[in-house]
Design brief:
Residues 1-18 form the signal peptide. By secondary structure, this protein is of the alpha/beta class. 43% of the residues lie in helices and 21% in strands. The chain binds arginine.
């Protein structure tokens, strides 16, 4: 009798253990392979990384991040679908499973690493302040914008960088980068904080804007990486392989350069 009870207890705990095992099983890669496609969340108004342009008369999302996504699709043998949204929704859509990954110039900060898995980083960029060209001599230090309005993109790390470093400035958080630039041109804000390659693109296309010589510090984990749901070990391995190869061959820099030229040519 006792033996029988012990035996069934052992069997029960075995079942319980197996159940636990499958609950935490890493399906990150299998899920995508089974679907035959990978859904990539991005905010395509961030040239040269992702932006919209006309290709053969059709509105198309292009840019360095798009090229990286395509390489990932090739490696996994699946189709790539881009899901465009505002930047403050990119990470949450990866968490909710609406998108499989996020590639959107996302800085892999320590805070975000607590919630998401990140690939190897693929790009490092500095933060700069865009101002009106006519006022560029007025704004040379981090305290020069005191009492003035400074815009940053909602949900971006620039919100924190501006708040912490441009002491005394009034922070304006806007959903769209284009909106920030328009507010600056209209004189409604006095500065816009963006990462350098993005800022350079806007300045190249707007004669009335310039990059101020204000020196902003970057965090040590602000480089861009691909965001995945926590626990995506198998998927991360594949994506890291792609990123490593693209970095080693200098392809990432080529993607950025080509996309930049295309973005300012339009
Ligand atoms: N690197 C910054 C961040 O992660 C800004 C990224 C904004 N990206 C975009 N596609 N609008 O917060």
């Amino acid at each position: 009798m006792k033996k029988w009870i012990l035996g069934s207890l052992a069997a029960l705990s075995l079942i319980a253990l197996t159940a636990c095992g499958s609950a935490t099983e890493d399906t990150s890669l299998k899920k995508i392979e089974n679907k035959g496609k990978i859904v990539v969340a991005m905010n395509p108004e961030f040239a040269p990384f992702e932006f919209k342009t006309l290709v053969n008369g059709k509105d198309t999302i292009v840019g360095a991040d798009v090229e990286i996504a395509k390489e990932i699709g090739k490696e996994l043998g699946v189709k790539v679908e881009f899901s465009s949204m505002s930047f403050n929704n990119v990470l949450s859509s990866v968490q909710s499973g609406k998108a499989d990954i996020g590639i959107s110039g996302i800085s892999a900060t320590k805070e975000r690493q607590k919630v998401y898995d990140f690939s190897e980083t693929y790009y490092e960029s500095k933060n700069v302040v865009i101002v009106k060209k006519s006022e560029v001599d007025q704004y040379k230090t981090t305290t020069a914008l005191k009492g003035q309005s400074v815009a940053t993109q909602k949900g971006s790390i620039q919100e924190t960088i501006a708040k912490e470093q441009l002491k005394g400035a009034n922070m304006v958080s806007l959903v769209q980068n284009g909106e920030m630039i328009n507010e600056l041109k209209a004189g409604k804000v006095n500065g816009v904080v963006l990462e350098k390659p993005i800022a350079e693109g806007y300045v190249a296309k707007n004669d009335d804007l310039a990059i101020a010589s204000i020196d902003l510090k970057s965090g040590d984990s602000d480089a861009y990486a691909v965001a995945m749901p926590k626990g995506s070990t198998a998927l991360k391995k594949k994506i890291d392989k792609v990123i490593k190869k693209l970095k080693a061959s200098g392809k990432i820099d080529t993607f950025v350069k080509e996309a930049y030229d295309l973005s300012i040519a339009e």
